[in-house]
Amino acid sequence: MDLGDLLHSIFNFENYGELLVLVQNSIWAGAVLGLLGGLMGTFVMKRDLAFAVHGISELSFAGAAFALLIGANIVLGSLAGSVLAAVVLGVMGVRARDKNSIIGVIMPFGLGLGILFLSLYEGRAANKFGLLTGQIVSVGTVQLQVLAFAAVVVMVALVAIWRPLTFASVDPDVATARGVPVRALALGFMVLLGISVALSIQIVGALLVLALLITPAAAAMRVTSSPRLVVTLSIVFAMTATVGGILLALGGRLPISPYVTTLSFLIYVACRVIGGAKAKRGINGRILRSP
Amino acid sequence: MTPVVSLRGASLTFGKRTLWEGLDLDINPGEFFAVLGPNGSGKTTFLKVLLGLQELSTGTAMLDGRPVVRGSRRIGYVPQQKSFDPDTPLRARDLVALGVDGHRWGIRLGGAKVNRKVDELLDLVGATDYAKVPVGQLSGGEQQRLRVAQALATDPNVLLCDEPLLSLDLQHQQAVSALINKQCHEADSAVVFVTHEINPIMDYVDRVLYLAGGRFRVGTPAEVMTTEVLSDLYGSHVEVIQANGRLIVVGLPDATTHHHQDAHSVAGEVG
Coiled-coil ranges per the record (chain B) (predicted)? Predict the structure, then answer.
């Protein structure tokens, strides 16, 4: 394969209009997941759960692989795996150090189980690969409806606990003193996170979930500290990455995840540069009064 | 005058260890009340009782004539200074706003009212100039001013302060304690001030509760901070020396638990 072929397999915009119609569902799915990832990501960052997201996604992968093996619904399998992992982390990992070691224990176990189930599975190889790296090209209407419904449920729940969860995430001591149910909120958020991971895995795969749930929020936090702006930017970045990634991937015959992760990464790099420049010039919102 | 805080026959035991027992105490509006003692003597637990986070083993704890409850709006809580991650997506004013309505469900709708309240609070503690600075980029002293503003958000009748001056430099210690004192004497709030070190608040304190070795003593600083009383509480000879209007406690049995006081006594400067 020479360079021309290589580029052709990465970027190919022939018959783009026709393809676009065919993948409408996928684009909608990407938009929904971008919105969800952008929203959830801000709390994942505030609660320092990046590593947890990774651990949950490995167990989600194991669940999906098991479902594939026994011929059950893959989405349900992945949902069961990730919610279970999330709840275990929520209950056991109260202190940050505990949490990290528990994730470190769970993660390889989940990945190992997943590999075991996939090795036993004798169906199409593409199905296996898709669990790890994502595949969104074939999103059916029903699937999209289920996805959108689940995402809406998660988002409504998140909005309902938004303020106390923010309080509990950034300022747990004072939140506790003010009677905010810090522990219950932590557990509730983990359940929402489990569901979000399972949904996101369908588009970017178990290995790359971080690109949807971490990178956009992390990028937003580099350029602003305004809570409202962080959320807005995080959503915009995540949706740009997913929808943009799908649009770019359309012509080629590659999985969609490298496009999504690359866009996500480039946005992050740009935000770091901007944030660095701001810090260098000492802009942080302080009003300086001349003596 | 109805006391803001009222304890009757209060005791607290964990297993075999008794933090204190038979504590009867009334704290009145406008009173600056300090809680002193070595680490592990139950100072912070005392605050937790008032916050409704810790149940008494026996006795009752009342706030404004009613039993204590979790999350009371009548309480303002000022915690220890802790560092925020520089990336934390929270500006000074957002931290204060959490004190106003952070405990409510849902998202903040109609922010104008909250904004006005936050502006007012920031002005009160002199933090207007850095209202939009991320909390992670503020100095410890600036953060503690915000903590006071945050605690005052519900117009509480009692301010519970848990070592709010720890790790602040002298100048900020004075500024923050003056701010708390102002609220105490001008707005007639009661202040319960847990601390290792009485000197920074010496001028303001009306009474102290000194906890040590499972026992306690309540009274004015002049009554409690004496060689006799502290020696009795610690069960060994402790010398209290007065110098330039500040107190130096020498010879505490467990030097490590009193690191703060001891270190500064040796250095001869106010902590």
Answer: none
